[in-house]
Design brief:
Shape: elongated
Number of helices: 2
Number of domains: 1
Radius of gyration: 22 Å
Strand content: 35-45%
Largest sheet: 9 strands, antiparallel
Helix content: 10-25%
Distance between the termini: 74 Å
Strand order of the largest sheet: 1-3-4-5-6-7-8-9-2
Number of strands: 9
């Protein structure tokens, strides 16, 4: 083998080794856009547990939100766990923070005080680790009872994204 051929072979091998981690890292990045209609309204007490006695009040106040869509854009690197997400609802954008919940990619933005245009406590987005199931939720303050939160969700409150991972912490 000539020196020139050996040099080409070594260069090709070096380039291949350098590009391999970059290609692998790019394969670890998942980008997506999810648009979900809001479908359910559930009342929660101050511990976060369901409060069926207040469901009717929540449904009366927030019924106009049902059917409206929350659009979320996300970028998740499954290797480094660096991630970002932004949700859009009714002409407003909400940059979300990663929550670090095991078994699911979860993001939220919390408001204190709520914005003037909507009594929001939080905007939440979750997606399964397989990127097959997603959920958007808005937690809103109920005007008639400040101890009650109304959860307007694209999916039922207690339906887990992954069967082994509950999304709601048990009430204390």
């Amino acid at each position: 083998m000539s020196m020139k051929a050996l040099f080409r072979l070594l260069c090709a091998a070096a380039i291949s080794m350098l590009l391999s981690p970059m290609a692998q890292a790019a394969g670890d990045v998942h980008r997506g856009v999810v648009t979900l209609p809001l479908r359910t309204i559930t009342a929660l007490n101050e511990t976060g547990a369901p409060d069926p006695a207040m469901n009717a009040a929540c449904q009366k106040e927030f019924q106009p939100l049902l059917g409206k869509k929350v659009r979320t854009e996300y970028v998740i690197n499954t290797k480094t766990l660096m991630m970002s997400a932004k949700s859009y609802f009714e002409g407003h954008s909400y940059p979300l923070s990663a929550l670090g919940i095991a078994g699911v990619y979860a993001f939220a933005k919390y408001f204190n005080p709520p914005p003037a245009y909507l009594p929001l406590y939080s905007v939440q987005f979750m997606i399964s680790t397989q990127f097959t199931q997603a959920r958007s939720r808005l937690a809103l303050h109920l005007a008639q009872d400040p101890k009650t939160m109304c959860l307007v969700s694209s999916m039922g409150m207690m339906m887990p994204l992954d069967a082994s991972v509950p999304l709601q912490a048990p009430a204390k």
